[in-house]
Amino acid sequence: MAPVKPLSASVAQQLTSAISATLPETTDVDPLLRRSDRADYQANGILALAKKNKANPRDLATDVVANLTTGDVIKDVEVSGPGFLNITISDRAITETLAARAADGDRLGVPLKDQPGISVIDYAQPNVAKEMHVGHLRSAVIGDALRGMLDFTGEQTIGRHHIGDWGTQFGMLIQYLIENPDELSAETDTDGEQAMSNLNRVYKASRAVFDADEAFKERARKRVVALQSGDKETLDLWQRFVDESKVYFYSVFEKLDMEIRDDEIVGESAYNDGMPETARLLEEMGVAVRSEGALVVFFDEIRGKDDKPVPLIVQKADGGFGYAASDLTAIRNRVQDLHATSLIYVVDVRQSLHFKMVFEAARRAGWLTDEVTAHNMGYGTVLGADGKPFKTREGETVRLEDLLDEAVERATAVVREKAEKVGLSEEEIVENGRYVGIGAVKYADLSTSANRDYKFDLDQMVSLNGDTSVYLQYAYARIKSILRKAEGADPVAHPELELAPAERTLGLHLDAFGTTVFEAASEYAPHKLAAYLYQLASLFTSFYDQCPVIKPRPAQEIAENRLFLCDLTARTLHQGMALLGIRTPERL
Ligand code: ARG
């Protein structure tokens, strides 16, 4: 029986099924399709199968060809080299498959996962009373894109913004505020920048007193105890720091054009109540042991200098809990209460040892089971255009807001240059400038594989040429303008038409959208989607150069079919960019 072809199957998937159908049912073989210069696809999988069955690969390939039903999908197939298959797809199959996708609204024919899991994504986790830095930017941008892609595959995602809202530094801050009550305005500020500058001032001032005044230091220490024991006045003041910081966080996230939900801001402090139990359980199970008064977990394979084992500290000798205890308690919550099947931490690669130890401890305790994966998506450092760690000329850390403002400013200048020709209003220029500028920052981050360091180079980011979001946004707007200009012709697929080479190449790339999103999502690799989109825009450019759509106007059906390709390209660009958190203005 011919394999039933589900609507959502791509051409490549139909081809895979057709090849598999020629093999005995028991063989589970991936034909390993690759796009190829000689034909549309080359299948390399026969070689591995022949090796396994101790058969001659060329003979096996010849058998496959003899049994392969050509017709609907396959136009031509031949054996080449030691046992590859070169396959040419029929034009009809390309257009028909794309037409089915085009008829499927925003999903573009991309199926939903059969068995979606629940992924808890820990991302965008700045620290209270502190300025956000470029590292926090990466976490937010990458986490948001991961989430967009996973959601699109049907996975259920839950965000967790594990903000740094606990620790001994609050003793100092709160004590200072008690002694200088007017320093933080009673009303919570609504202006993010104002909020941060207030917090900065308090932070600096309290630090200065803390360092200079022994008596204050002692009072600050006592304040930590009061905070930990839940003293009301102390907690109220702590809350003010948190609230004021959130005003600031939200202003940055809004600038980033990113939606962050309040119920998903669940910081370190949220796990306070569970930490004593975490410690007790670990000790009872023998996962953690007492060492010099502290409760720690040791790992054979993790050793520091002089070969001494590096422990994970669950509870300090003074009874206090820290970062690790909060993360371990969070795991219990995420697995047992949220029923997560995957835990993803988008956190600086410099914390990878911490996560390695936390995950291992949680596995030993049985909180992480074989059914649950845990992954630290550790990202690299943000460097300046000079390749050195990102600093201002004066050697200070760059303020995130200044950075984003500058990106928007530069982008607005780029947009303005072309605005007159496109007929954009001042309002549209401002709006587009924002989308282009923020998109540039996000795309530069997402298009490099996350574990690599990347250069924050605004000149390059807003450049119209090369692998930038601006290039993609212009490609999108250009297609939209083509579609508007095509009076008297609508995008209509015509499967009966023969396709030009550039149409085939574009069509087969469009065909790969679904598999690309699935691959990028399951590998936590947004850069694969970014690379796909960039190639899509480039292929569109060659198509448009070689296949006139409007001028000179081709025959009606050809024009309609080409407009159909334009339309599907635009929608794919739009959807793909949206998954990455980047807007595509209609006119640019
Ligand atoms: N707030 C931390 C920082 O700024 C990142 C938190 C990461 N998440 C976690 N579950 N530990 O470095």
Short précis:
The chain is α/β, with parallel strands linked by helices. The chain has helices at residues 11-21, 45-53, 57-67, 91-102, 134-152, 169-179, 192-212, 214-228, 232-255, 275-284, 323-337, 352-364, 400-422, 426-446, 458-461, 469-485, 501-511, 513-522, 526-546, 556-579; strands at residues 33-35, 41-43, 74-80, 84-89, 118-122, 156-160, 289-291, 294-297, 312-315, 342-345, 373-376, 382-383, 454-455. Among the domains are: 11-89, Gyrase A, domain 2 (2-Layer Sandwich); 400-579, Isoleucyl-tRNA Synthetase, Domain 1 (Orthogonal Bundle).
What does this structure look like?
It is a single chain. The protein is of the alpha/beta class and 588 residues long. Among the domains are: 11-89, Gyrase A, domain 2 (2-Layer Sandwich), CATH 3.30.1360.70; 400-579, Orthogonal Bundle (Isoleucyl-tRNA Synthetase, Domain 1). Helix content is 51%, strand content 9%. The protein has 20 helices and 13 strands. The protein has helices at 11-21, 45-53, 57-67, 91-102, 134-152, 169-179, 192-212, 214-228, 232-255, 275-284, 323-337, 352-364, 400-422, 426-446, 458-461, 469-485, 501-511, 513-522, 526-546, 556-579, and strands spanning 33-35, 41-43, 74-80, 84-89, 118-122, 156-160, 289-291, 294-297, 312-315, 342-345, 373-376, 382-383, 454-455. Strand 3 and strand 4 form a beta hairpin. The two termini are 51 Å apart. Mean pLDDT is 93; it is low at 1-5. Arginine is lined by residues 122, 125, 127, 162, 164, 327, 345, 347. The site of arginine (ARG) has 8 residues, from loops.
